Amino acid sequence: MLDLRLYMLQRLSALIMVPLTLGHIAVMIYAVQGGLTAEEILGRTQGSLFWFLFYGSFVLAVSLHAAIGLRVIVHETFGLRGTALVGLTWGVGLVLLGLGTQALVAVTWPEGV
């Protein structure tokens, strides 16, 4: 039953990631073609609730998706099971969430806070 839930959760995270990824790529193409500098981009994203929610959702979905995917790969490749597999899954998920949150704060948090 857990495998089915994780399978469905990974598929749901993929459905969330697709439009966010396409949106991110579209914004990056616009920024590069528009000749925006990193300073100009940060000027538009820092302090913006929209970009915080956009990239925050992206970070959550990617962390969850990658941790579940790695769980399956490690189990099938190395035969890891039980507590070690659960610990690895949680560990990877939390590390990715932490790193993503760090990037999220750097890009969207208001300057000077």
Characteristic key phrases:
mainly alpha, elongated, 113 residues
Task: Describe the secondary structure blueprint for this structure.
Blueprint: H1 2-33, H2 38-45, H3 49-78, H4 82-108
Helix pairs in contact: 1-3, 3-4
Question: How do you describe this structure in short?
Answer:
Helix content is 86%, strand content 0%. The chain has 113 residues and is mostly helical.
Structure description:
The protein is an all-alpha fold. 86% of the residues lie in helices and 0% in strands. It has four helices and no strands. It has helices at 2-33, 38-45, 49-78, 82-108. Helix 3 packs antiparallel against helix 4. The mean pLDDT is 95.
Number of E strands: 0
Largest sheet: none
Q: How many H/I helices?
A: 4
Spatial shape: elongated
Radius of gyration: 17 Å
- Percent of sequence in beta strands: under 5%
Low-confidence stretches: none
Quickly give the structural class.
Answer: mainly alpha
Q: How many angstroms does the end-to-end distance come to?
A: 45 Å
What fraction, in percent, of the residue positions are helical?
Answer: over 70%
Mean pLDDT over the full residue set: 95
Succession of helices and strands:
HHHH
